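User: Hey, quick favor. My workstation is busy. Could you predict this chain's structure for me?
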Amino acid sequence: MARYHDQVTGILLAGGRARRMDGQDKGLLALQGRPMAAWVLDRLVRQTNTILISANRNTESYAKLGYEVIADQDAGFLGPLAGLASGLGRADTPWVVTAPCDSPFLAYDFVERLHRAALNSGSMVAVAHDGHRLQPVFSLVNESCRFDLEAFLRDGGRKIDLWLNRQAWQSVDFSDRPEMFLNVNTPRELRDLEEMPGLGDI
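Assistant: No problem, here it is.
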């Protein structure tokens, strides 16, 4: 059986409008002198066959990070499901995994745990759970879900939980990795993250 790395394409989700950040592109904001997206990519690339960056603006800046940039098929900023759909349409692997551009501390065993849970349960989608709630932007999705997702979006669907209810999916406990779900939605949260002790060791 192929190693899980060979079967998974990573999709960095950077396609939002970031309204709470005054429209600033969160993935390109600096954290200790590096774009936040670069922190995520450093961890994601170790766990996947290849990387795609889902972005609807500042595409040249994202391309400088060294990976192919793909835009949503619809230009209306339809949310993470639209980025997932574009990634499924572009990926050459049987699985894709998603991670947001503003969560810099992705677990080093993130993909392995999702992949193992999907295979063990026979599920087509595996979704991280932080111990309190589901975190669906941290998901592993099989290529077989592509056409149903595209149909869901065409019919006006946007909510991830409603789309998940159409799939065979498995929740995966990441309560031992709370740092993975730290993200940045406001300028204050970015300042707080910069001031966190031992930031480089997380």
